[in-house]
Amino acid sequence: MHNKTNKLSITKKSAWSLILAAKYFKSKSPDEISKIHIEKSINKKILKYEYDIQKKVIIDSNFEIDDYGHSLFKMYLPLIFNNQKNYVIAHLAQTLDGLIATKSGESKYISSKENLFHIHALRAISDIIIVGYKTVQFDNPMLTTRLVKGENPMRIIIDKDNKLSKKYNVFSNEDDKGYKIISDKLKSRNTNIFQLPLVNNQFDEKDIISLMTKLNKSIIFIEGGGMTISKFYQENLINKLYLCISPIILGEGISSFILPEKQSLSEIKQHEITYSIMGTDILCDINLI
Predict the structure, then answer these.
(1) Per residue in 99-123, pLDDT tens?
(2) 87-287 falls under which CATH superfamily?
(3) C-alpha neighbours within 13 Å on the C-beta side of residue 148
């Protein structure tokens, strides 16, 4: 073990760089390892730590880990070292009254800047981002990692009827990582297109996950919207759900989840939840699978 009195101090940016180093390590390492050793030169300092994948804790380091750094390592390292063939993360930001957007579909800035950092961090550690076409229509997001250091992942928009043009930010970004999934009944000359069959005029979410496997994408981040996340939730395909609750009330708008009505309270699943404060928001961390 390193002597505590001789440990180095690190910044928030350094802590995040060490998490990205773990992401790079995971992409090059065998799946059966139980402990990892990360060593990275940052600002002319050699920073080292050892992480126990099974226990989900850092067991040794040559630097001091403050509360903020601890929260970063605790949140993101287990996602990176998840030991699943496909690990699906979903995130929703909602109001106190359970809404994710106004009736017109406006949803930007419901959550705090701290939660925006969290969303961008999830993008950076993910292999691919999935959103529905309405999220692109209403918000025109870039779906990049511009708020954090890290490479932009591939982005896929579920657009069965091929409604979206290339004018949207997600397709016009110079990294050319914006793709669509459209019906296999349609013809398109556009590039960056995947095609899947429709079942009852909808994609089967299991087919989408199978496509991710073929693309060798392990960490899958479903960023929105509520309908898209609800469909994956209903099919029991989400491993980790982050539900960010913002201290505002809209009154009317679009609900977080769109699910079939339950006839009895006994049919409803109960989920174990841990909570953390994220700026002015409360982040619910929910393990589903």
Answers:
(1) 998 887 777 778 999 999 999 999 9
(2) Dihydrofolate Reductase, subunit A (3.40.430.10)
(3) 30
